[in-house]
Amino acid sequence: MNTNGIPCVDTLRKTSSLLRKDVLEMIYDVKDGHPGPAYSAAEIITALYFGGVLNVRPDNPAWEYRDRFVLSKGHACPLLYAALMRRGFFSEKEKYSLRKINSRLQGHPDMVKTPGIDATTGPLGNGLAMGVGMAWALKHQKKKSRVFVLAGDGEMQEGIVWEALQVAAKYSLDNLYIFIDHNKRQSGGQVSEVSGILPLMEKFEAFRLWCREIDGHDFSEIFSALRDSEAEERPSVIICNTVKGKGIDYMEDDNSWHKRVPTEEEFLSGMRQLEETDQ
Ligand SMILES: [Mg+2]
What is the CATH number of the domain that holds 64? Predict the structure, then answer.
């Protein structure tokens, strides 16, 4: 991990609030989208894009030696669009084109349309498998680029995830870093009630992967896990305990916000709350 010039935690916290505000504005404007799953991942995305982790070039999104990022939980893409926009991959003017016909900011990430998107995702589980393929290919090509995947905990119910992880372990893909946004909820309710994915840590360890469980809203824990994982000669999985809807009181842990549009009153209240953490 590039440890040079990493902003302080206060600055990162403000950035994560800015991203959350962008997401709320985008979803309120188009009257469609997934705020809850975006908010649980805000600190992870902020750390990667603004914490000196991802080696990317906004002025050359297809740079051959860039690190790759795959948003396997593709429905959280307004958050990724906000990060890419604020890193300069495209202009703020595009913010309100989310989910519009022919726009570059579709309801799920599109690697053909959008600068900075490395994988087209949406079908759950597929993004993680694509990340494994990318990491394998990069190693085969003897490139030093790394691959970062952000997956939802609901995605762990997909068989393709475990097929891909077997490959990642077999080929010792130490250039692969998988974050699990463990917000305990999915579209259909509590993840543990929908299917028996737990215990996650023991499953990853049984697959011979390096695994650490952290608070996914704590920047220090995110960076510490990344630092420790760098010494490992195998794939890394970081289980991030998070809160769905984190950052706005009426959204937190209310699963109806998986996909829901705020009323005007809710929008103004949410923006006010995020403004306070943005100072
Ligand atoms: Mg979830």
Answer: 3.40.50.970
Determine, yes or no, domain membership for 1. Answer: no
Q: What confidence score (pLDDT) does residue 4 get? A: 52
Determine, yes or no, domain membership for 2: no
CA 142 to ligand 1 centroid distance, Å: 34
How far apart are the CA of 8 and the centre of ligand 1, in A? 28
Count: domains in the chain: 1
pTM value > 0.90: yes
Helix (H) or strand (E) holding 162: helix 159-170
Examine residue 213 and state whether it is found in any structural domain, yes or no: yes
- Going from the Cα of 186 to the center of ligand 1, the distance in angstroms, rounded, reads 4
Report residue 2's pLDDT band, with 50, 70 and 90 as the boundaries. very low
The reply to whether 248 falls in a domain is: yes
Neighbours of ion ligand 1 (CB under 5 A): 152-154, 183, 186
Beta strands in the chain (DSSP E): 68-71, 147-152, 176-182, 185-186, 189-190, 210-215, 236-241
Which residues lie closer than 8 Å to 62 by C-beta, 6 or more apart? none
pLDDT for res 193:
87
Give the residue numbers spanning the domain of 71: 9-277
